[in-house]
């Protein structure tokens, strides 16, 4: 069995387990992948790009996902957190041996700086900004109004629908619409790249700007800090970690709480006071619609907007308009089968 001892840490590479002073500490799978990579480097610098390439080889993720997991490792390390060093603008290194303090003089101890990207005040990480809203939320005004009304009446609202149907776009628009409606604002937590409960809690803490310690469970700390606040928490792409997301929602809401939770998922959270909003596909033209009506339908407008953003150009004669309507209908339906980009581009080629 391969066990690495670093100070008070015991790391089992076989069991993918970390112990501090003999006590097992929870750690997410991605965080452990990063730790294993730093251990393999034996104290040498590992660049951010290399970590992203190895840990997320087939997935495009934002670099703040890396910061989430680095923060999780430092929390798991407890009093040994100084061993995980930031080399500003370059990457990270793990001090493996007590007789080697700083192989790279430019490295920054974690107590001085969690990560340059979270700002100068390391004692209080900054809350993450909302994702940028889309220029136009096509065909979703009724849905937007419905979700806003649901959040006024219920503590938990879940947007449910197939993959690619537009749940995240709608949730982002809701977040921007309500960012000044809550005294403590809106927190947006992306979970698409998360696959386990510890990583989900780390992502939540990072988005909230919460500093977690190893002395209490992460969920208990977050609930204690936020339960009495007035805020909306948006949990996006929950289906891989549904159980822990449900626990988060239950912990933040409840009797007397002013907190609201908006989730996007392929299925409901099944928590108290939850209302499920089924996100429908965009409406499509019928074969008998005249050309002017075809161009007004949400699916066609969305299709044209995406196509034009991709550099496609269209003739607007009657035949092209009708073909565009068919393509938009087919592409919109195919989004639930995760091949929307390929299907749409084939259609664009046939119309242009």
Please name the CATH architecture of the largest domain: 3-Layer(aba) Sandwich
Residues in β-strands, percent: 5-15%
Could you tell me the mean pLDDT?
A: 80
The count of helical stretches stands at 12
What is the total number of structural domains? 3
Enumerate the spans where pLDDT stays under 50 for 5 or more consecutive residues: 102-106, 108-124, 335-342
Structural class: alpha/beta
End-to-end CA span:
61 Å
Largest sheet: 5 strands, parallel
Number of strands: 12
Q: What is the CATH homologous superfamily assignment of the largest domain? A: P-loop containing nucleotide triphosphate hydrolases
In terms of quaternary structure, the protein is single chain
For the CA atoms, what is the radius of gyration? Answer: 23 Å
Main-sheet strand order equals 9-10-11-8-12
- The shape, in one word, is globular
Question: What features would you describe in this structure?
Answer:
The protein has 352 residues and is of the alpha/beta class. The chain has three domains: 3-114, Winged helix-like DNA-binding domain superfamily/Winged helix DNA-binding domain (Arc Repressor Mutant, subunit A), CATH 1.10.10; 141-278, Rossmann fold, CATH 3.40.50; 291-351. Helices cover 39% and strands 14% of the residues. It has twelve helices and twelve strands. The protein has a five-stranded parallel beta sheet with strand order 9-10-11-8-12, sandwiched between helices. The protein is globular. Residues 102-106, 108-124 and 335-342 have low confidence and may be disordered.
């Amino acid at each position: 069995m391969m066990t690495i001892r670093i100070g008070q840490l015991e790391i089992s590479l076989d069991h993918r387990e970390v112990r501090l002073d003999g006590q097992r500490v929870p750690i997410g799978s991605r965080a452990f992948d990063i730790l294993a990579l730093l251990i393999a480097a034996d104290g040498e610098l590992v660049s951010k790009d290399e970590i992203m390439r190895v840990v997320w080889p087939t997935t495009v993720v934002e670099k703040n996902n890396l910061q989430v997991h680095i923060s999780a490792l430092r929390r798991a390390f407890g009093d040994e957190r100084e061993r995980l060093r930031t080399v500003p603008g370059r990457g990270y290194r793990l001090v493996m041996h007590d007789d080697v303090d700083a192989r790279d003089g430019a490295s920054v101890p974690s107590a001085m700086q969690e990560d340059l990207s979270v700002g100068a005040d390391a004692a209080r990480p900054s809350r993450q900004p909302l994702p940028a809203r889309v220029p136009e939320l096509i065909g979703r005004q009724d849905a937007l109004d419905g979700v806003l009304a649901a959040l006024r009446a219920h503590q938990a609202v879940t947007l449910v629908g197939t993959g690619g149907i537009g749940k995240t776009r709608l949730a982002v628009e809701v977040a921007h619409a309500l960012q000044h409606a809550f005294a403590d604002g809106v927190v947006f937590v992306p979970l698409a790249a998360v696959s386990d409960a510890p990583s989900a809690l780390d992502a939540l803490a990072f988005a909230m700007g919460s500093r977690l310690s190893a002395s209490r469970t992460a969920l208990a700390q977050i609930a204690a800090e936020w339960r009495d606040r007035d805020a909306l928490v948006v949990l996006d792409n929950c289906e891989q970690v549904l159980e822990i997301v449900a626990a988060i929602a239950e912990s933040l809401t409840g009797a007397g709480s002013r907190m609201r939770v908006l989730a996007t998922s392929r299925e409901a959270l099944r928590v108290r006071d939850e209302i499920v909003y089924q996100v429908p596909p965009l409406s499509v033209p019928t074969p008998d619609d005249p050309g002017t009506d075809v161009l007004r339908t949400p699916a066609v407008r969305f299709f044209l907007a995406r196509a034009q953003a991709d550099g496609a150009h269209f003739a607007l004669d009657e035949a092209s308009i009708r073909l565009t309507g068919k393509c938009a209908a087919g592409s919109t339906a195919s989004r639930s089968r995760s091949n929307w980009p390929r299907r749409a581009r084939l259609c664009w080629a046939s119309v242009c």
